């Protein structure tokens, strides 16, 4: 937690004062080991970054005097279209993409996505929010990414994706019939990443019809949680 | 498992024949769902890649006719000096680094490495080997990376690191007083990555005395399991 993310509900009637309990309180007490008078890095959800000075701190609650004055880091101009990963990996992938600045993540069905993955409790709105918050706190960001769940591949790729990807470079990470993945994207990108085992030929055909180019990162096949940071870092070396 | 890694002990007295049991057998039966006559991608530890044709397959063992004829992918010319991560993350980081082609990984102590991490059973030789094998199988590689455990920061950095890093570009991922991390390394690199919370100033001083330059990936702070693929992909975009 490199930043404490504050929600509207955290602010009290006292102007510029926030009151925290629960997970963030425990973290400040046990990891930061903060005391009254200490200053912590804070940010307001979808707002600015700044400093929170500890006004009071007990095991039940903490009050902060909050001054917000700096913009969050710029977002990555990239939409990530990701075949739904297995539940064990999902949280980590959401944190990784969020921490790198992705602001729109589409979790898409594909033939090699096991049907059971869509039943995972990790897809509950509450968990999807919690993981994005962890990613924002990690990267000292405040802007919550959007997550869209698309359980039907064909209608999404045919009917929604072309408008969503309009004006962007459209790349599908797929090592066959591919060109090398660009180093430094020229502008906004829509990046599609397949499931373990990859998109099937029909799915690649549909993506190509929608304007995607297959791109490769080399002969090594990476796990999705490594492939995503590797791809984003290559497209947008800051 | 994009490749089945074969060890010397797997080969039978029959030339070109290997016999597998255990984890690899289960994977071939349950995930690949292979049958007699099918061909699987195989590689010999520290040797060549090739094909294994299933000669027999029962629930107890599988025999393969093995033909090895292709070199493994080129290694990444990078030594990774990594502050020992928390046990929960260690396996994933070893798999990530191995799958990206790192051939020497030094796990180093630092002030912000909790002492208990060094007691983790995950540091047992058996587990370190198992994770590297998973990384090689993931990336279709055969060359086992070396892992060195260095529990004393100062003697390692003062006495061993200069010789180890000689002739390489020496970079420490550290966002303060840093230059931007190069995009495309000019040649071999020795890359130091600190613990959660970073190297302390004394440690950075020691690394600088040993020839390291602090480099930054931008204002976002990434978890180590994302930072490593992001750094490697930026230094060596294939």
From TrEMBL, chains A, B:
Belongs to the RNA methyltransferase RsmE family. It holds the Pfam family Methyltrans_RNA. GO terms for cellular component: cytoplasm. Signal peptide: none annotated. Its EC number is 2.1.1.193. It comes from Desulfoluna butyratoxydans. It is an enzyme of class 2 (transferase). It is found in: Cytoplasm. One of its GO terms (biological process) is rRNA base methylation. Specifically methylates the N3 position of the uracil ring of uridine 1498 (m3U1498) in 16S rRNA. Acts on the fully assembled 30S ribosomal subunit. This is Ribosomal RNA small subunit methyltransferase E. NCBIfam families: PRK11713.5-4, RsmE family RNA methyltransferase. Residues 73-235 form the Ribosomal RNA small subunit methyltransferase E methyltransferase domain. Keywords: Cytoplasm, Methyltransferase, rRNA processing, S-adenosyl-L-methionine, Transferase. GO terms for molecular function: rRNA (uridine-N3-)-methyltransferase activity. It catalyses: uridine(1498) in 16S rRNA + S-adenosyl-L-methionine = N(3)-methyluridine(1498) in 16S rRNA + S-adenosyl-L-homocysteine + H(+). InterPro entries: Alpha/beta_knot_MTases (IPR029028), RsmE (IPR006700), RsmE_MTase_dom (IPR046886), tRNA_m1G_MTases_N (IPR029026). Its main location: cytoplasm.
């Amino acid at each position: 937690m490199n930043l404490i993310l504050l929600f509207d509900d955290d602010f009290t009637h006292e102007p510029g004062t926030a009151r925290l309990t629960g997970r963030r309180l425990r973290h400040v007490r046990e990891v930061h080991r903060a005391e009254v008078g200490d200053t912590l890095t804070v940010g307001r959800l979808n707002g600015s970054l700044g400093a929170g000075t500890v006004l009071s701190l007990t095991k039940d609650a903490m009050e902060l005097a909050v001054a917000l004055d700096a913009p969050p880091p710029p977002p990555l101009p990239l939409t990530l279209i990701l075949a739904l990963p297995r539940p064990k990996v999902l949280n980590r992938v959401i944190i990784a993409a969020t921490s790198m600045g992705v602001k729109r993540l589409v979790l898409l069905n594909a033939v090699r996505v096991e049907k059971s993955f869509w039943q995972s409790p990790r897809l509950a709105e509450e968990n999807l929010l919690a993981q994005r918050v962890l990613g924002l706190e990690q990267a000292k960001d405040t802007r919550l990414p959007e997550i869209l769940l698309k359980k039907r591949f064909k209608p999404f790729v045919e009917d929604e994706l072309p408008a969503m990807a309009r004006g962007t470079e459209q790349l599908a990470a797929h090592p066959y019939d591919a060109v090398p993945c660009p180093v430094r994207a020229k502008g906004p990108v829509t990046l599609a990443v397949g499931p373990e085992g990859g998109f099937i030929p029909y799915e690649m055909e549909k993506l190509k019809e929608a304007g995607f180019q297959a791109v490769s990162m080399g002969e090594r096949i990476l796990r999705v949680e490594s492939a995503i940071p590797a791809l984003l870092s290559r497209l947008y070396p800051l």
